[in-house]
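Internal tracking record. Fields below are filled automatically when a chain is submitted to the structure queue. Please do not edit lines marked as system-generated. If the sequence contains nonstandard residues, flag them in the REMARKS field before resubmitting.
Queue: standard
Priority: normal
Entity type: single polypeptide chain
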Amino acid sequence: MRAYEMSAADGLDSWRSAERPTPELGRGQVLVRLRAASLNYRDLLICEGRYPFAINLDRMIPVSDGAGEVVALGEGVRRFRGGERVAGIFSQSWLGGAQVADMWQTALGGAVDGVLAEYRVFDEDGLVTLPGSLSFEEGATLPCAAVTAWNALYGLKPLRAGETVLTLGTGGVSIFAIQLARAAGARVIATSSSDAKLERAKALGAHDTINYRNHPDWQHEVRRLTDDAGVDHVVEVGGTGTLPRSIASTRPGGHIGLIGLLAQGEAIDPLAILGASCIVRGVAVGSREMFEDMNRSIALHRIEPVIDRVYAFDEAPAALADLAKATHVGKIVIRID
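SYSTEM-GENERATED OUTPUT FOLLOWS
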């Protein structure tokens, strides 16, 4: 089978095309013919040697997010049938409940092989069925970005209709957060440095937008838009570079889902969290149970994942380079023909 491998963190040259034998099935396992994969900022961090969690660089197949169809079943499989359309869960051991201790040791495209290949064997517990309305390309966008957005909005303090959500930027997690929050009847305030991207955000469901180049202290605009009440939820993808402003934007008792490492800044003063009386929680993707809950919402509300561009399989390195430019809205996808 065709695949990409990674044996060193060589930046945008990290992925090498390879031929590998089609993996063999064991008991309780499912062979999936992968049809599409989508990229996340995590993939770039791994290639640049900046990923802070476990990785295996012994000819590791990269990329965590993929979708395909079941083509063979191992002995004892009960959850799936041949021909079903599926996606792998990000952490193969986190099925439900609280985050498991070995989450990072079972994360696809990091500690274990990912999905940038024609075939992959999964334990049957490590898959979910795709919503029927989605293509393989759309389904491939879900495992990391969409589940992360869902966990940020529902994992600790479930979002309620009428609450206000603040999203940062227009990457995959933020765009999914806009769509999921709008479907829940929440008000969305979106930020970006691009007016064109903010128009896209509005078309996808954002009620208010802030260009942070025009308003570098954008927390004041958030306060103005909420009559100084602050927001109920922040989907915080920036990290230390934006977290102080997110804290200042949040109402007492509000929730900040801390996800990304996109913006660098000074160390966080814990007094800011104390003064705001808000909750700052690390969000590390989510469980299979969250994935399945989210899929029901996507199916009910007919949510369509936003794909910026689709690349052919042999163009995968170009897709990674495109990701590094950070000009996309939504997701970058690789079709595995």
